[in-house]
């Protein structure tokens, strides 16, 4: 039976949910849309002149599938895939342009586009095997793969750097995905499921071991084949999906493209795929522990093992007033952590704010130290985990929704964004949550100036 369903997704857009925290904001979507539209128009005009061929663009990948996630850490980027199509009748090899030559034309066009400062482009990477990449301020890049399109046959082939033409049809797999369910609400639930898996993978795998977006998308969609998802909560659905995918990959590492059975979508090596199987098992175990925990707060802490700072706590929503009235103690546990909090402005060390389990509002640019005051009372073998959960427009715009802050009895952090943020302390004994504490950090206004700033000297 679902315990944490409303922490995964809720109809009320104001609620803090996992889906809300991992999904780009409307402003972020709009910024990306403005840029890829402009780039697409430039490329169509430029490359038509370069080749005398008909040209088209078609958005593909996560943005097209509506399964895009926000960057999981500061410095990571949104990813957009903008397919570029050169048209001629017949097969790819009947054209006058080789695949690598067409990629070179796209690369040169991107370099010229980036050279215009008005375009906010920050750089063009060296060509990749299957695409060219251009990056933009503040936090996204656009991959541009090149295709041959025969309009009469509605047939597509992908241009590669060293492997010639590859059979590839992004439109066909998009149409396959779009038709998985007739019911709109079930289609949206499948998209949410894909987003959960993509964020989980981003947090749990290094870049070179991470499963691709299309691999996770197909695995998720096929895991639900014949499964009645109507009325099933997202947390229960994720548990089912993790189990089914693990069992599937244990039988075979190959994952055929559903619209081209000759293509294996799993480009991970055997070692990385074994790791993927193991971690799907861990994800399934996390889901089971959360379901059996019997307490929403404990379930949320368990789910945070998979989704870290992106998974909200119950007090982020309807229990916030109750939590504050009870001195921020969310539930009765075996261990009741007591936390000393000290905030000191960087430029004014004589000023500070101090509290036990709480802190009054503070300005930006303060060093904040959190100390587990009763650490000597921890049960033998107990471990602690501090988690920063940021909220608000400033943190969201910079894709900094938090991080694991440490596992020691004392941790320090910095006040950077206006808004109501939280430092969550969890105490574990084995896999069991035995203690919790939330400290609200309310940041208001600008940094406090230095107490005695140096006076400007004037010379006459």
Characteristics:
four-stranded antiparallel beta sheet; eight-stranded mixed beta sheet; Immunoglobulin-like; alpha+beta; Beta Polymerase, domain 2; 460 residues; 3 domains; single chain
Describe the structure.
The chain has 460 residues and is an alpha+beta fold. The chain has 3 domains: 26-173, 2-Layer Sandwich (Beta Polymerase, domain 2), CATH 3.30.460.90; 179-299, no CATH class; 315-443, Sandwich (Immunoglobulin-like), CATH 2.60.40. It has 13 helices and 18 strands. It has helices at 5-8, 18-22, 26-51, 61-65, 99-115, 170-178, 184-204, 213-223, 234-251, 270-292, 296-307, 320-325, 393-397, and strands spanning 54-60, 78-87, 121-124, 132-136, 140-144, 146-150, 155-159, 165-167, 256-257, 260-264, 339-345, 353-356, 366-372, 383-389, 402-406, 410-414, 419-429, 432-443. The strands form 4 sheets. Strands 1, 2, 3, 4, 5, 6, 7 and 8 form an 8-stranded mixed sheet that branches. The protein has a 4-stranded antiparallel sheet with strand order 12-11-13-16, with no helix packed on it. Strands 15-14-17-18 form a 4-stranded antiparallel sheet. A hairpin with a 7-residue loop joins strand 3 and strand 4 (132-136). The longest helix has 26 residues, at 26-51. The chain is globular, with a radius of gyration of 25 Å. The model is unreliable at 320-330 and 456-460 (pLDDT under 50).
